[in-house]
Specification:
The chain is mainly α. The protein folds into two domains: 74 residues, Serine Threonine Protein Phosphatase 5, Tetratricopeptide repeat, CATH 1.25.40; 279 residues, P-loop containing nucleotide triphosphate hydrolases (Rossmann fold, 3-Layer(aba) Sandwich). It is built from 25 helices and five strands. Helix 13 packs parallel to helix 20.
């Protein structure tokens, strides 16, 4: 292969990645690095492998890079970012520390480490890293934000508010820093009962987030996707599981540990449930893994009359590999719990590959769900207003209401409010649904969570015993919710929130 051939095939590989034709792209990249091992495309190759869902290949490529190239701070930081994108956080963490240690005076490297640690449960380590950044640049905006953010996580509200206000008064402030400060200030005001101020802050944060967004185009894309999801789900027959099972009977399926999907709408208590279940010694629970989105969603056509068992088993194997990639094999006899609200609207695709899967759906007062979502830093267009949030909520729950009518589906609904009212009673009911009996460890779930990363935004909430302050939270914002309350009313009735 000459240089001209190399450039032609490289452009073809890049185009294939853009078109999501990953097998062809990866074949081209493999050929290119074989013939030109010293070329600078190894990182492209690893990124393409990760995007395709082949996390094993991505990791092999990244390990090859580390073995062949000088381990500079820049390289380590870039690879840490790539590992983080596929949620292999232990590898990302190790590389972040190595990069920061190589260049202790490099503010960019120190900020990268501090930002990574601040997104996990490592509050003390994050504080040390943030202080290092402030030593290098005491007026650095990102480090000052992270310092205030950690004060909020530590519930040192007066200190946090003072630091946020001081930062927001700074000249030439980065809009992204302003956006993050407004979100945290909104949470702080909400926690201290200053509800109008809280809403003002979060509304300003939303305004900043959408300032550079093409609202019309985003609205059109979102509406088309929502309509397509509802139309597709509605077109599936109630006996779909039986139909699919005829071409993919149990004896032809790749053997897998018992699997339960824990979904529902975001902010419905799924993280709390996952942590309670994960405290059981016979459960391996996974917090918003990328396994479904990387392994099943892009590759399965639920409308196909027949999908060969070989293809479905390939998806099962890749899904299970990606699910357990970060933490390793779960251990013999454990029940797997994939807590992941986002795939709820794509549940038919999940069931096409795992017809035996149990579906556990978390419910919460729809009005509390909307308020909780609105106060989060969620970039989706569906979360830009209460009206859009209501549309998204209706879509997710309409999909679920259709699927729960399917014949042969093993499913259960559990309410956040019931968990809060009686942890052991409702926790035992949920635990029994996944095939196990309540274990005493589950009552102290929050102790275990202090030692594990929490991928959702409510780290503090699930590292303490259950509490009631989030129930009925919507009433403090009723006047802002008023336009969408009639939209939510049917769902309040269906799920028992009169």
């Amino acid at each position: 292969m000459n240089t001209l051939d190399f450039n032609e095939k490289l452009q073809e590989a890049r185009k294939s990645v853009e078109l999501r034709k990953y097998p062809h792209a990866l074949g081209l990249y493999a050929t290119l690095v074989e013939h030109f091992p010293e070329s600078g495309i190894w990182e492209e190759y690893g990124s393409a492998a990760a995007a395709s869902g082949d996390f094993d290949l991505a990791e092999r490529v990244w390990e090859t890079i580390l073995s062949r190239q000088p381990n500079t701070a820049g390289l380590l930081s870039r690879l840490a970012y790539e590992y983080g994108k596929i949620w292999l956080f232990s590898k990302a963490r190790a590389l972040c520390f190595r990069a920061a240690n190589l260049e202790p005076g490099n503010l960019e490297m120190q900020l990268s480490l501090a930002s990574f640690l601040a997104r996990t449960n490592s509050v003390d380590e994050a504080r040390t890293a943030v202080n290092k950044c402030l030593e290098i640049d005491p007026r650095g905006q990102q480090a000052r934000y992270l310092s205030a953010h950690l004060r909020l996580r530590e519930n040192k509200l007066d200190d946090a508010e003072r630091q946020f206000r001081d930062l927001l008064a700074s000249p030439a402030l980065d809009p992204q820093v302003v956006h993050l400060c407004r979100i945290d200030m909104a949470l702080l005001f909400d926690r201290t009962g200053r509800y109008d101020e809280a809403f003002s802050q979060i509304a300003e944060a939303r305004s900043i987030a959408t300032r550079n967004m093409n609202i019309d185009a985003a609205q059109k894309r979102y509406d088309e996707q929502r309509a397509n999801i509802l139309r597709t789900t509605k077109s599936l027959a109630r006996n779909s599981l039986e139909t699919w099972g005829k071409s993919f009977p149990p004896e032809e399926r790749l053997a897998a540990a018992p699997l339960a999907f824990l979904g529902g709408h975001a902010r419905s208590g799924t993280t709390l449930l996952e942590k309670i279940l994960d405290a059981h010694p016979a459960v391996a629970a996974y917090d918003e893994s990328l396994a479904f989105h990387s392994s099943i969603l892009p590759l399965v056509n639920i409308m196909a009359p027949v999908i060969p068992a070989k293809s479905l088993n390939f998806l099962r194997k890749r899904y299970l590999n990606n699910l357990t990639k970060e933490s390793g094999p779960p251990g013999e006899g454990k029940v797997l719990v994939d807590k992941n609200p986002a795939p709820t609207i794509f549940l038919p695709a999940f069931l096409r590959v795992f017809p035996e899967m149990r579906a556990l759906i978390a419910l919460r007062d729809p009005r509390d769900v909307l308020v909780s979502c609105y106060f989060q830093d969620l970039p989706n267009f569906s979360h830009t207003s209460f009206e859009r949030l209501a549309q998204h909520y209706c879509c997710v729950m309409d999909v679920w209401l259709m699927i729960r009518e399917w014949e042969g589906l093993s499913w259960m609904e559990t309410r956040y409010e019931d968990i809060v009212a009686d942890l052991q009673k409702e926790g035992a009911r949920v635990t029994k649904f996944i095939g196990l009996e309540w274990h005493e460890n589950q009552a102290q779930f929050f102790e275990r969570n202090r030692e594990k990363p929490v991928m959702s935004t409510n780290y503090k909430d699930v590292t303490q015993p259950v509490y009631t302050r989030s129930i009925g939270r919507w009433r403090a914002y009723e006047k802002y919710l008023a336009p969408v309350l009639p939209v939510l009313e049917p769902y309040c009735k269906k799920f028992g929130y009169e």
